[in-house]
Amino acid sequence: TEVEISVSKKVDAAKEIYEREWFIVLLIFGFSLFIKGIYLFFLASSPTFDAPTLDASTHLRWAEQLVSNCFSEPHEFFRAPIYPYFLAGLLAVVGKNFFLLHLTHFIIGSLSNVFVYKIACRLFDKPTALLASLFCACYWVLIYFEGEFLIPVLYIFWILLLFYFLTRRSPCSLCNLVGAGLAFVLALYTRPNILLFFPLLLLWIVY
Fold this sequence. Notes:
Elements: H1 2-18, H2 21-43, H3 54-68, H4 82-94, H5 98-123, H6 126-138, H7 140-146, H8 152-166, H9 174-188, H10 198-206
Helix pairs in contact: 2-5, 2-6, 3-4, 5-6, 5-8, 8-9
């Protein structure tokens, strides 16, 4: 019947879309950014939106000092420097436009969700990967930290990038090892406690 033919065409179209990897990746990124954008809309009315407190305030003042000193640091670091330098780079480009500063963090968080999908696809299957990326996109703890000037937004991104290279085909190839090594070094200079997991990473590579 015409109804069955119409349903069959729709099912075939849905399968075709489902098999288009670039479309799925774009959909995951867009959905994640949409959820975070809703949070950003409400965050803009918060008193701490343009007046961060505690660690976030420390990172912002450190970044401002780096910009005013032309990215030179006259004192010893009291914590890993990658995130303050990253924030200083953003300040140098967009200034103290807090909307763009927060939006950039949410974009990085959305890219992290894409890596979650790609890694889960390789370790499990596509339905599991889609579910994992959906949970990450809606997980309020991640959204909160991405909405602050805090280290986890970059740290999580580097770790996911590390496992992205380690779960590719031929993970011990030169290209993948260099990519994984670079991601590990960036994570190390973002939060040094990743060294605690270094033996496990070696076991993963051997496996």
